[in-house]
User: Fold this.
Amino acid sequence: MQKIFLRANGDLTTYIVVGLVNNNLVIGECHDGSYQELKKVDLQLFDGQNYLSEDEDKKEVASTERQVLARYGANVNMIQKQLGRLAEVENEDARTVAEGSPEYRPTLSYHKRGNRQLNIELHGDLLSVDIDGRPAAKQRPQPTFDNNAWIAYWDYDKGLKEAKDISSQLNSVSYFGGALDRQGQVIVLGPAKDFTAEKLPRYKVTVKKYLTVVNDVYDNPQDPKGQTKVKDTSVLETILATQSSRQAHIDNLFRTMKAYGYDGLEIDYEQVWKNPLGAFRYVKFIQEIAAAADEQQVPLRIIFEPSVPANKLIFPEGPEYVIMCYNLYGTHTKDAGPKADPAFIDTVLGRVDRLPRPHSIAFATGGCIWESGQSPRMVTEGEARELAKSLHAKVQREPSSQALRFEGRRADDTAVTGWYGDSETIRAWKQQALEHGVEGISLWRLGGNDHIRTYYVGLMP
Assistant:
């Protein structure tokens, strides 16, 4: 067994590996300690040698045995007897694999020395492997795992601090600050240019910066409190109405992204699936912006809600598709509960599978508070802990979701229930997604998380 590790970190929790194992070329990738096999090439088949069936192998073993006994027979009678039996074995019919006999795969010794020449090339996201001068893994986009996290413009300073704390684990960071005005023109809120000037150190890897644009409408980008509508679909109806209006919007998006100095673009348009015509036009828009991004060599991420009808629509290859996996319970539910649980994650992962690769999943930090006489409200992990402490409430971990919950009462006897996640919660959700084989995990959001480094395997608190 021989293995070559590429782009490995110090504790081998993240790497690309090319190895020769049991006469197979194996290419794999590990992220945060979770391994995924990407490609496996059987070298016997690679050399053009088909496998025998079990029946054929038994016949070959019996034939070899008779030949050895005949060669070293003690006397002429013994030799003639073994030659007769050899003739019987040779005349027996042995079913082939095509005729229904199982394929025989021998187990090879890990210590057996081979004589192979490998040429491995990894340029950016392209990996190729030649064996003995012949391509075994053709050069193609390497499905680089995307560890992503969002920084929100309204919590920029805290988000940036956490991004720097975990930059060695990140492939990209999305600045959640792009929105629309009443005419559908792209506007950018907060210190967007300051963020592009910030350094996010990671050894030999550039952490990409995406500008996230959402369909929230603002009257004045200088006054975020002047927001008029969240997840406005009426402005999208105008933007997506025709091919020319979609193209104008695409040009506006790329022009804005480049003006602010971002590496890539992220589209997070929501509430679009309820209207069939709007959904059709949005898919057309994705097809058109994907083609434009490919032409301009701009990384593109498309964010979907958990309700995306992935099994009914056809999306183009090219972008990274990310499905939100949060808000199972939240401000929209009367009942209290976690942002996600195993069953919900499995449902979302099923939708992820129907999307073109690369496809990813997004989890949310923090939680939600339900208080008698008030609307539910979102809180960060830190805010949830402080509230529980002020109420002298006992915090318990719910075994299924691995989320934390507490119940308490204020001085006026008002009932308060809180659910939120911490590093242990997020790591459990990540593990479920990694075992499923996603190609990226995004975290909404940075800022207000206690001990953010513990959210990532391989980092010390």
